[in-house]
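Teaching assistant here, posting this on the class forum so everyone can see the example we discussed in section. The complex has two components, and the goal was to see what a joint structure prediction looks like when all of them are supplied at once.
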Amino acid sequence: MIDLSDLVSAAFRFWTPLGFAAMGGVVSERAGVVNIGLEAMMLGGAFAGVAVASTSGNAYLGLAAGTATGALIGFLHAVLTQALRVPHILSGVGLNLGILGLTTYLLRVYFGGALDTENKLPGLFVTLLGIVTVLTLFFILARTPLGLRLRAVGENPAAARSAGVNVTRLRYSAVTLSGALAGIGGVALALAALGSFRENMTGGRGYIALAAVIFGRWHPLGAAAAAFFFALGDALQQSLQTAGLAERIPPDFLTLLPYLLTLIALAGLSGKASAPAALGNQEA
Amino acid sequence: MPHPPAEPPVTAAPAAATADAVRAPAVSLRGITVDFGSVRALDNVDLELKPGSRHAVVGENGAGKSTLMKVLFGLLRPDAGAVLVDGIEQRFSSPQQAIEMGIGMVHQHFELIAPFTVAENVVLGAEPGSALLLDRRGAEAAVAALAKESGLPIDPAARVETLSVAAQQRVEILKALYRRARVVILDEPTAVLAPSEARDLWAATERMARAGSTVVFITHKLDEVMAHAETVTVLRRGKRVLTTAVTDTDPARLAAAMVGGEAPAAAAAAAAPSPQPAAAPAGEAVLRVRGLTVRGRRGEVAVENASFEVRAGEILGLAGVDGSGQVDLIEAVVGLRRASAEILSLGEVDLRSLSVAGRRAAGIGYVPEDRHHRALVLPFTVDENAVLGRHREPEFAGAGGWLRAGALRGFLTEKAQAFDVRGAAPGVPARALSGGNQQKLVMARELSRKPRLLLASQPTRGLDFAASAFVHDALRAERDRGAAVLVQSLDLAEVLALSDRVAVMLAGRLVAVLDAAEATEARVGALMTGAAAA
């Protein structure tokens, strides 16, 4: 049957990409910018990570490239939403579609439809990095002047501005950092266990990370825990499949499990009381 | 009418200010001119602010009071003119620079972060401690010390969202003082306060002035000017028409200066509102409410077990400090809020199972508090707004559900004339009207059905006194026609001037219903704040 320690270690493996992206979501949304573009930032990070690792032969260069690519896409989201006043959801969805198209194109044209590398990142290292990130973010938001200002910008940008906070700069920084974190999430997905990149390999994990942010009530620890809950669902469905249940339950249904969990978790959430008050506001 | 006193072009203000280092900077605005497109909002306005005094700025809506304060606080760059601090010309491109020069502003709509604590709100942007660690205890101690020193009592660890409006206002003032503001601008500071809270505020401003600061306040209430300012400036249509010591003027002269020419009856009435009781005794109960309980957005009890009635031919005024449940109560009667009640009926009609449309059809007219969100659809034309809610009636909707544009136009033209809605030509979007004319349009629409019950929430909010007087007259006319009228206002003077009976709410409970004769300001004020039992 199911081996519990296998299940937990698989859950951590699945958690790492989700956790990074969810932290990215927390940073962006606490600053008031909806980030449904996490998917694009993960996917771009994953692609750049594997591409650089395989061509350079160094996994850590891949990690740096993935982080930078995520940050770049995040910066783009900041420009679109802040300077050009594109509605946040529209900008995020546009980025998701655009990056999906771009990575697919590059993959087919330059890498023959599949990217593989022997230069992987140690899974334990990436997971520990993820845990450290969660704790650091928690500390910054709760205990530093920077965190106070970031939260102020997400709650009431006008008040923050009149208190002397540079709202625009803080939002650009937050959304760019958000992209970098999601980019690391993408690298963790592609370069830690698999060492490969495939078309649309994030497969909606950015959306699940965003769901974890909401389910975790925009709190770093809450979002990390929610991401773990979803990762556990993912691990469970995989264990069930390998345990031979696939003969009795259609495998497609099992694959559905984590998404179903997401839906149920969000449906059970009452109200929007804990969302940053100015989240998604066009006026700043 | 009084002439603006000739002021010396450049006074010896700098010398006076340097005499005392802790004194507020002597601030003067010289020849301020601001254009909004083709409209001149401010025309060559001068303003001298002396340290250690309180200066009132009065004027009708659109006179330019707020615009002038925005220039002073760096929110708006003037098209011409200069801001001088201690004689040195400053060009503020943001409030940040004004703050650095010692100028602070408390906006009418507070700029506070609801889930943050008082201390967090005060220190935000200028936090004590290192960049790596927020010194919460230090912040709370600093705010507690400042609160004590300035006579603005507050719990630094309390979350702002749990505070009363008066306490939130104290937080705003503390924010300015924490940033070492020596000139504090207050925009209509008592509009949302109960009388006792207003007294505390004025006491604090007096202390600030004695300590050498300058307090500038905008107000519509001339009695406040007379009691709490040393100097007053009157603006009219963007021009300064008068600056004088309050000892040299009186409310009637100020009112006359505000409206121009002779003081019309409306201005005199607004300067000293007086009750005008109903001509005939009230009839039978039209609205009957028993055991009404309404829950707020977070599930808390907003109105608890309220029972009252409003009779035909009377105005029942609802008094209470902001957030006492008045709005919830009225919205529950209209049907906008879910509520439980043993009885909620209009005449013989049980309202409880009726929708909003059903209740309106049963004879309820409603003038909501927030006319931009609840009363009008701003981008729609005034014709459309004039029939909003009545648009399904055969008079306006033809076969197949088409709106009859001609009927709308005719209706609008008739109502605009009857209610003196200026600028309401067919096809004009509602947003193009001034606040007073928007409110007249809403009144015209709501009264057009001859409601048995008229509910009005803050009907003169933000209106100048000519428009306010018009609205008051319209409400009295409804009463005299025999309608039951329920009016809610945060302005106690307005409630007392309009009402035949006054209901007082405190923290969601209806604590008293008084006849006009017993409803003195002192008594109602005490009931509103819980200082007296019913």
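For the discussion questions: Chain A touches chain B at residues 143-149, 151-152, 155-156, 158-165, 273, 277 (CB under 8 Å). The two ends of chain A are 55 Å apart (CA to CA). Think about how each of these relates to the inputs above.
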